Structures are given as C-alpha cells and as structure tokens.
C-alpha cells in the first residue's frame, strides 16, 4: 500500500490537475447547464465511475497497452469524441423540449444520464493518458503489489475529482434555475451546453497518447 507521504503527494498533484478546468469540468458544466443540478451531479458520478474503469484497466496493464498502441488509442479517442458530439447535437436539437421540462419541473431521466456519463468517462483519452503516465510514478515495488497501489491511487483521484466536479455541477445547475424561469433563456442555455459538449468532443479528437 502507498505510504501516507506518497498518498498526500499524489493527492496534492491530482488536486492541482483536477481543479484546472479540463474535459471533465467542461462535460459537467455542459450537462448541468443543459439539464440541471441533479443531472449534473449524476453526470459527475457516472463520469467518475467510468474513469475508475480506466484505473482498473491501467492497473491490469490493459491501459498501458492501449496508450502504447496508436491504433487502439485512436479508436478509444474517436469513440469518446464522437459520443460527446452526438450528445451535444442531441441536446441542441432537443432544446425546446428541455425548456418545457425545465419550466414544468419534470424529473430528468437520471438513469440514462448516468449511463451516458459512464461511457464518456471510460472513453476519455486524456484521463487514460494521465493514468498511464502519472500513476506508475507513485507506485513502488517495495510497497506491495503494484496493481493494488495503482488502484488505491486511482480511487483517491476519483474521490477528489468527484468532489471538485460536483461543486462545478452545483454552481452551473444553480445558475440554470434562474434561466429556467424563461423558456427562451433555457433554450439558449441548453444550446450552449450542447455546444460545449461538441467543442469538447473536438478537443478530445486531437488528444495525443502518453509517451
């Protein structure tokens, strides 16, 4: 198991990387703006679970193989980017229906939102590259089984990311509550959230593998 000093050092490094707005934050903001606080928090939970799947893959060596292979990494990269673009386009096309839902205070389909976020988290190439490049640096053969150490570090990363991204979700969702008083404003806000997801998909499409 990693030593307390290693855990604290890793937590500090992870926190610095997480609080800087990146793909996860932009995804959370896009979902929260388009669908509200509950959907935003649900998206954070799903995205975190998906990233933990990447931790398991890296710990077992699969992630390293994907990151080392141009073909495999490209498949994961474009699959995640295409899915984000799909979600963004769908959000824009359904903005009028979402405006009606917001003004009627109808519940969002959280189960579906959670599943979508899991896919986004698991196919995020930047998260995969980070885990492959950074996690092994904090693992030591003298501290026990390396896969176990990587798993613990990955869980710590996921916990910090969930707390940080949840704050963004609450802030964006709260702002949306004010916009929801007007169907026209919520249409514009939903379209903005969709555009952010499309832009994020474009950014991820140009992600490079860890070297």
TrEMBL record:
Any one Pfam family match given in the protein's UniProt record, by short name: LysE
Coiled coil: none
Main subcellular location of this protein, as a coarse class: membrane
Keyword entries, A-Z: Cell membrane, Membrane, Transmembrane, Transmembrane helix
Membrane-spanning segments: 6-29, 41-65, 71-93, 113-138, 150-174, 186-207
Localization per Swiss-Prot or TrEMBL: Cell membrane
GO cellular component: plasma membrane
Family matches, as PANTHER family: ARGININE EXPORTER PROTEIN ARGO (PTHR30086), ARGININE EXPORTER PROTEIN ARGO-RELATED (PTHR30086:SF20)
Protein name: LysE family translocator
């Amino acid at each position: 198991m990693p030593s307390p000093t290693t855990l604290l050092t890793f937590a500090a490094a992870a926190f610095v990387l997480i609080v800087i707005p990146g793909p996860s934050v932009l995804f959370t903001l896009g979902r929260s703006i388009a669908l509200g606080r509950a959907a935003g928090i649900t998206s954070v939970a799903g995205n975190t679970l998906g990233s933990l799947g990447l931790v398991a893959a890296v710990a077992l060596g699969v992630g390293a193989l994907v990151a080392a292979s141009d073909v495999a990494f490209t498949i994961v990269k474009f699959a995640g980017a295409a899915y984000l673009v799909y979600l963004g386009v769908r959000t824009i096309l359904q903005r009028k229906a979402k405006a009606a839902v917001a003004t009627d205070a109808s519940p969002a389909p959280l189960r579906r939102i959670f599943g979508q976020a899991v896919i986004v988290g698991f196919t995020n190439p930047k998260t995969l590259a980070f885990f492959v490049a950074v996690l092994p640096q904090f693992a030591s053969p003298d501290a026990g089984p390396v896969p176990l150490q990587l798993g613990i570090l990955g869980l710590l990363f996921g916990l910090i990311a969930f707390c940080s991204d949840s704050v963004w979700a609450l802030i964006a969702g709260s702002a949306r509550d004010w916009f929801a008083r007007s169907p026209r404003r919520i249409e514009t806000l939903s379209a903005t959230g969709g555009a952010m997801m499309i832009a994020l998909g474009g950014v991820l499409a140009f992600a490079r593998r860890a070297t």
